[in-house]
């Protein structure tokens, strides 16, 4: 890790419990993978204009990461009456239908999961707040539920867990998924020197216990991965995922999420980021192959220091402005069908004390809920496009 990144990582870890949690792209490429001066500065390479299909494709994934009320710790069992008061907007957008078809509970510490730790905030390796009551609160309304393992705060924990026993880590994750009836999201945010062999072992072991299920009928078989907003961060993980795990011809993971960047992008920045995945990076050495649009979602923030359109005003939002790209963008070297899988939003309830929680007067029925209505989001989530 570069010295400045090491300093950042240590500082971030120290203030995590004060300031919160996040999914971020740092736009800080590993220069050994790049070939030209523009890329060394972290700028997007010149790319051909994207092409849109004549007819939009139905979005299939429309979900929200859930940070709980303690900045992604989920360290205490929640009172379900209080939980409903703060999160009812997720299961009822105002007309009795859910605002999303997926909730991802964030985050599980991979090292605690490996060791089955029980402490003040953890029970047998899982945060105490991630209970069957919470899972069933959403599942009873047809909303799919997943657990996210990692997040940037737990990058070192991922590294240690993979190096110690990736097979056991996957075995424990598979057992929890089976017990709770949830899927698993891999959020391993190691930008340099990622343990790809260990991650491959984790994925192979998990798939030996819960084989890939194109129908989506087995909740525990849903296994996804988080990638950067574009292709200029988490480069090695992105290359490995696009090459080996997200191919439409032989899928291993269900899909990827292109995470939020460091701050809410503009409409054009969001498209530029997502289009990088579709185009790939042939100028990198070795190159990153293109990713089929049906194999990833794009992410946006719903939290800010004041209410923002993604949460409260759909028709002024980036998701509305970029609806044609997300539903009509054509493949460029991978896949055959138009349109990304859909949107993900960061994050329900309280990811940071510097941003508004999605509670009280800042509930997101006017943004996410209205979007679910506009896009006719299917609940429950259907079998996902495969090509």
In CATH, the topology is named: TIM Barrel
Residue windows where pLDDT falls under 50 for at least 5 positions? 1-19, 25-48
Backbone shape: globular
Characterize the biggest β-sheet: 8 strands, parallel, barrel
β-sheet strand percentage: 5-15%
What does this structure look like?
By secondary structure, the protein is α/β, with parallel strands linked by helices. The protein has a single domain, classed as Glycosidases (TIM Barrel, Alpha-Beta Barrel). It is built from 13 helices and ten strands. Strand 1, helix 3 and strand 2 form a beta-alpha-beta unit. 53% of the residues are buried. The N terminus is likely disordered.
Helix and strand topology:
Blueprint (H helix, E strand, L loop, with lengths): L2 H17 L17 H4 L20 E6 L13 H12 L10 E7 L1 H6 L6 E2 L2 E2 L4 H8 L4 E7 L4 H26 L2 E5 L8 H14 L13 E5 L7 H11 L10 E3 L8 H13 L16 E6 L7 H4 L5 H4 L1 H6 L13 E7 L16 H10 L13
Parallel strand pairs: 1-2, 1-10, 2-5, 5-6, 6-7, 7-8, 8-9, 9-10
Antiparallel strand pairs: 3-4
Helix pairs in contact: 6-7
């Amino acid at each position: 890790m570069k010295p400045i990144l090491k300093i950042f990582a240590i500082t971030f870890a120290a203030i995590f419990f004060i300031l919160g949690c996040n999914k971020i792209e740092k736009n800080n490429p590993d220069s050994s993978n790049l070939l030209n001066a523009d890329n060394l500065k972290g700028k997007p390479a010149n790319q051909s204009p994207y092409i849109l299909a004549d007819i939009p494709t139905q979005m299939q994934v429309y979900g929200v990461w859930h940070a709980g009320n303690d900045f992604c710790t989920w360290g205490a069992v929640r009172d379900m009456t209080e939980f409903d008061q703060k999160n009812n907007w997720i299961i009822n957008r105002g007309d009795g239908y859910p605002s999303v078809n997926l909730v991802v509970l964030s985050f599980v510490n991979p090292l605690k999961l490996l060791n089955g730790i029980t402490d003040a905030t953890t029970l047998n390796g899982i945060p105490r707040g991630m209970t069957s009551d919470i899972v069933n609160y959403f599942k009873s309304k047809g909303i799919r539920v997943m657990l996210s393992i990692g997040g940037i705060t737990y990058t070192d924990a991922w590294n240690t867990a993979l190096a110690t026993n990736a097979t056991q880590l996957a075995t424990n994750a598979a057992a929890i998924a089976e017990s709770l009836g949830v899927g698993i999201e891999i959020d391993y945010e190691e930008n340099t020197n990622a343990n790809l062999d260990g991650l491959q072992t984790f994925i192979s072991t998990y798939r030996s216990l819960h084989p890939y299920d194109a129908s989506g009928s087995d909740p525990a078989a849903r296994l996804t991965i988080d990638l950067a907003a574009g292709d200029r961060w988490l480069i090695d993980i992105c290359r490995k995922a696009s090459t080996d795990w997200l191919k439409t011809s032989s899928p291993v993971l269900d899909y990827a999420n292109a995470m939020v960047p460091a701050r809410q992008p503009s409409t054009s920045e969001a498209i530029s980021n997502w289009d990088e995945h579709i185009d790939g990076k042939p100028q990198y050495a070795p190159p990153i192959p293109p990713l089929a649009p049906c194999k990833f979602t794009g992410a946006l923030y719903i939290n800010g220091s004041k209410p923002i359109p993604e949460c409260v005003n759909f028709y002024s939002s980036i998701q509305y402005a970029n609806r044609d790209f997300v539903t009509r963008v054509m493949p460029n070297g991978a896949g055959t069908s138009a349109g990304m899988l859909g949107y993900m939003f960061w994050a329900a309830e309280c990811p940071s004390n510097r941003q508004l929680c999605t509670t009280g007067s800042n509930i997101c029925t006017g943004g996410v809920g209205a979007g679910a209505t506009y896009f006719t989001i299917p609940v429950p989530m259907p079998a996902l496009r495969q090509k």
